[in-house]
Design goal:
The chain is an alpha+beta fold and 184 residues long. It contains 7 helices and 8 strands, in the order βαβαβαβββαββααα. It has one domain: Peptide Methionine Sulfoxide Reductase, Chain A, CATH 3.30.1060.10. β6, α4 and β7 form a beta-alpha-beta unit. The longest helix is centred in the last third of the chain and has 17 residues.
Length: 184
């Protein structure tokens, strides 16, 4: 059995690279969602004019990991207080976004955001967009499993590898295939 969440927080290579490391994740697929242009290309999305965000669709085993734990990890690996940017990546295609498939996913996302804000997890308000998932367009093949294919590439070494290391340090049980949950 597999469930899916769709999230974006900067370059999809970074988000995908972290989620691919989790034993309970069957697949982390980079793509585009949240915009109006049908079947957009990477070049079109990078223009910032399609309305799409770079996102990752995470297919996971709900018997091994809870959706809430995946969302907590998602918030830990990007800055959800930055609007339309993450580090060197700037533009609406890099916005922090959760695209929910149903009302239950929306409630879970709202609960995690509320808990993070109540805990004062960030010095500024969370600006993560919550939107219904209408269509997901897989990115071109060159963007899939990018970190795995090019771990020594400068972007991978400087941006993705540190995110993976921090995530492993903060949530070791998720990477070891242990517990199903996290704590905010």
């Amino acid at each position: 059995m597999s469930h899916t969440i769709t999230v974006g927080g900067g370059c999809f290579w970074c988000i995908e690279g972290v989620f691919q490391q989790l034993p309970a994740v069957h697949q982390a697929l980079s793509g585009y969602a949240g915009g109006k242009t049908p079947d957009p290309s990477y070049r079109e999305v990078c223009s910032g004019r399609t309305g799409h965000a770079e996102v990752v669709q995470v297919h996971f085993d709900p018997e091994r990991i809870e959706e809430r734990a995946l969302l907590e990890l998602f918030f830990a690996i990007h800055d959800p207080t930055q609007r339309d940017r993450q580090g060197p990546d700037v533009g609406p295609q890099y916005r922090s976004i959760i695209l929910y498939a149903d009302a239950e996913q929306r409630r879970t996302a709202e609960a995690v955001i509320g808990e993070l804000e109540a805990a004062g997890a960030y010095p500024s308000p969370i600006v993560t967009e919550l939107a219904p998932l209408t269509l997901f367009y897989p990115a071109e093949a060159v963007h899939q499993r990018y970190y795995e294919a090019a771990p020594e590439a400068p972007y991978c070494r400087s941006m993705i590898a540190p995110k993976i290391a921090r995530a492993r340090e903060r949530f070791p049980h998720l990477f070891d295939g242990g517990e199903k949950t996290c704590n905010v």
